[in-house]
Structure to design on (809 residues):
């Protein structure tokens, strides 16, 4: 379980990216974070694993306050938090296997990681994850030889290799086409459901969020302005989050999208049983 | 889980995929290193003696003596600086026509080959070697140094200029040519505006290089601070040598920052 | 007459800007003339006017080339190549950690270590390898070792500067992703940064090796070993026919090394 308490972040430029965010994500919940660009979605996610240092407030994962840790202890705690990035952020010149194994970096001593001599169990786990995301036969390819969707699958496998207790996902579909986006979202939600893993997904695509999320939190100018089920995301709520922006245009998809949505809804139902 | 996964993984070789070739290359490198290291004959007694001298040099570097040889140092510096400036100006002035002549899109083939020939000769020969010849011809002193640096500037600048001109947008040249402009008008209107900013930048960069080189060619008699440095080291005056080296480092740093500032200012 | 009064004079720049520009050029010309006078104050013009005759004299003494000298040059040439190669390896090995200290995104201490690393880079870059050799010959005595160390010291600055620029240009997202896994500082370097700079690293090293081949050919002039020793000896005895052979050999070596380095760089990239 993750609990944020009064989390704020003010950048050195004086810009307040987050003000007083309080939020609880229970075990196994798939939570979407929506809001216009610049609302602080990315900052919020990065404050949790402290890629961005929060200015004040608490980040409590289990019973540890991450915001108060020293460097070494922070590294140990970061292992508990998997992260999936916008534009994949794979180490492009390393092989797929090395990228997945890099999820184990926090667990192995430096010499093992340098010589690529990971424990047998780690390698087995990495293979199992690659198989799970459907890339078993690409283990020896270099990451920059893969397509966008494949790279994001490697990103998912890397995050899961950490055996995390929480998954942070930052705009996972921003650079993918609609069909691949849906496949990736489905993969993430399925895997998290399998493992009972809580997830925070930062997502700008409202229809996609409504389709896959169990809960949606709307952020505007660093404050939470909506917190509820996808079904409660009414026009009024969206106007509250996005302002006067014509979010209706975002809903209009092509026929493929509608079809895919229906398909996804069926799958979600099946999962819920 | 019913399926079992491999428990070992080895990083596939990235550059040389054939194992036999990889071992051959590794063996070759090992043999070369053994042979090459074997050719170094080190007289450890001499090195041990040298360490004391090295300490004196380090001390001289930390406590440089600008004063006792100041007359020599200042004369060397003035020679170096004047040599640098005059040779850069003359080198740039000559490299402009040579550079235009070496651009295949502007001139007929015979001119092109002559100019590329000049550039090739100038680039192939080290400044120091050119300096040796010019000192033999023109006698000791900064004039030989000036000629050396001018000649080296031509090779450097004319090549980059020619490559630049060859890469300019053909569209703009076409447009000016279509107005019925003559060849000189073409160069003035279509080529000059496109390469001028880079020419100024490169000239300033070359000024910097010429100063550094002026410190070297003095060793073979072509004047400048290098001659002073050579003398100081020959006399084992490490504190004066340290002072000279610090001055060179300082001037190079000033030249580098100054030229980057000037380039920003001129654009 | 036209109906409108269009200006008849068109100028690209405002009068003030033009004035500044002309003043700039004027200053440059004045500076040039002054420098010229200072520089040539002690020049003996008789020598200068005599130069063509000297050139013709040297030219005539070069011919015929002393080809019989070549076998004697092969061992010094081998030494020269070793100076360049071993010097490059040494320089690259020292430049590698210095580049990480100098790069803004990897330096462990921006206040103390970074300025020191930057100073080492500038100092090494400002001083030509021939000057390093001059110093080292005085300190550790003439020979290959002085040449190797001179080449290594000169290479630190060049390799260090290009490498730290490459480190600063690495993709921060890849580094962030490795950090997020809980990796230690060294692990972030070895997984996040080093794979990204490897092509630049090999390219820079090979490029520097090519330059070092050129530079090591003349180190012998100050006693630091290699073919330059032979060059120096031949110049001192005014045997221009031998000098010409040595120069041709140097040119050939440089051309071959340039070809090898171009091939290697293409193979890497």
């Amino acid at each position: 379980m993750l609990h944020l308490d009064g989390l704020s972040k003010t950048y050195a430029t004086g810009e307040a990216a987050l003000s007083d965010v309080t939020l609880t994500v229970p075990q196994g919940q798939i939570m979407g974070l929506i809001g216009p660009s610049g609302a602080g979605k990315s900052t919020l996610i990065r404050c949790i694993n402290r890629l961005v240092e929060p200015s004040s407030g608490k980040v409590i994962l289990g019973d540890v306050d991450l915001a108060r840790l020293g460097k070494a202890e922070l590294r140990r705690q970061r292992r508990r938090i998997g992260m999936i990035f916008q534009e994949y952020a794979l180490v492009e010149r390393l092989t797929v296997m090395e990228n997945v194994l890099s999820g184990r970096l926090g667990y192995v001593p430096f010499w093992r990681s340098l010589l690529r001599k990971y424990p047998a169990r780690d390698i087995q786990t990495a293979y199992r994850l690659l198989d799970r995301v459907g890339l078993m036969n690409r283990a020896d390819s270099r990451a920059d030889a893969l397509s966008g969707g494949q790279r994001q699958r490697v990103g998912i496998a890397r995050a899961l290799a950490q055996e995390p207790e929480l998954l942070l996902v930052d705009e996972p579909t921003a650079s993918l086409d609609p069909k691949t986006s849906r496949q990736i979202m489905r993969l993430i939600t399925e895997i998290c459901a399998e493992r009972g893993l809580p997830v925070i997904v930062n997502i700008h695509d409202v229809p996609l969020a409504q389709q896959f999320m169990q809960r949606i939190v709307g952020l505007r100018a660093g404050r939470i302005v909506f917190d509820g089920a996808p079904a409660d995301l009414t026009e009024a709520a969206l106007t509250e989050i996005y302002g006067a922006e014509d979010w209706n245009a975002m809903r209009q998809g092509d026929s493929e999208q509608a079809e895919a949505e229906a398909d996804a809804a069926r799958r979600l139902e099946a999962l819920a049983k | 889980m019913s399926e079992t996964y491999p428990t070992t993984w080895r990083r596939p070789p990235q550059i040389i995929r054939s194992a036999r070739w990889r071992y051959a290359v590794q063996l070759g490198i090992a043999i070369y290193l053994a042979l090459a290291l074997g050719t170094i004959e080190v007289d450890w007694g001499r090195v041990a003696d040298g360490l004391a001298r090295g300490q004196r040099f380090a001390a001289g570097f930390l406590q440089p003596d600008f004063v006792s040889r100041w007359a020599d140092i200042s004369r060397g510096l003035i020679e170096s600086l004047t040599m640098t400036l005059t040779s850069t100006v003359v080198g740039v002035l000559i490299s402009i026509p040579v550079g235009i002549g070496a651009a295949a899109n502007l001139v007929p083939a015979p001119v092109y080959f002559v100019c590329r020939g000049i550039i090739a000769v100038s680039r192939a020969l080290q400044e120091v070697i050119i300096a040796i010849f010019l000192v033999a011809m023109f006698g000791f002193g900064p004039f030989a140094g000036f000629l050396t640096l001018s000649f080296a500037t031509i090779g450097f600048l004319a090549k980059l200029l020619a490559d630049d001109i060859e890469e300019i947008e053909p569209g703009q040249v076409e447009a000016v040519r279509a107005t019925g402009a003559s060849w000189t008008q073409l160069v003035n209107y279509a080529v000059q505006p496109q390469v001028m900013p880079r020419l100024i930048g490169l000239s300033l960069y070359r000024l910097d290089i010429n100063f550094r080189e002026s410190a070297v060619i003095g060793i073979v008699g072509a004047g400048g601070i290098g001659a002073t440095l050579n003398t100081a080291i020959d006399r084992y005056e490490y504190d004066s040598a340290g002072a000279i080296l610090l001055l060179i480092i300082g001037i190079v740093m000033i030249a580098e920052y100054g030229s980057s500032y000037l380039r920003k200012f001129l654009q | 007459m036209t109906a409108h009064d269009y200006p008849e004079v068109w100028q690209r720049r405002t009068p003030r800007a033009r004035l500044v520009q002309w003043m700039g050029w004027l200053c440059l010309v004045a500076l040039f003339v002054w420098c010229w006078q200072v520089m040539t104050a002690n020049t003996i013009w008789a020598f200068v006017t005599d130069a063509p005759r000297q050139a013709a004299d040297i030219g005539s003494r070069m011919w015929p080339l002393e080809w019989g000298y070549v076998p004697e040059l092969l061992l010094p040439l081998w030494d020269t190549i070793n100076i360049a190669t071993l010097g490059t390896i040494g320089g690259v090995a020292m430049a590698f950690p210095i580049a990480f200290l100098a790069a803004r995104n990897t330096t462990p201490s921006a206040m103390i270590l970074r300025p020191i690393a930057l100073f080492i880079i500038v100092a090494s870059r400002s001083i030509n390898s021939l000057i390093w050799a001059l110093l080292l010959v005085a300190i550790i005595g003439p020979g290959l070792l002085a040449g190797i160390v001179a080449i290594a010291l000169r290479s630190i600055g060049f390799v260090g500067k290009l490498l730290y620029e490459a480190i600063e240009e690495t993709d921060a997202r890849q580094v962030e992703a490795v950090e997020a896994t809980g990796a230690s500082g060294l692990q972030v370097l070895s997984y996040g940064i080093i794979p990204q700079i490897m092509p630049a690293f090999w390219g820079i090293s090979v490029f520097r090796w090519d330059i070092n081949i050129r530079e090591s050919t003349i180190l012998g002039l100050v006693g630091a070993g290699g073919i330059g020793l032979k060059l120096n000896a031949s110049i001192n005895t005014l045997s221009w026919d031998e000098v010409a052979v040595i120069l041709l050999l140097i040119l050939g070596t440089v051309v071959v090394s340039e070809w090898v380095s171009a091939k290697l760089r293409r193979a890497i990239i």
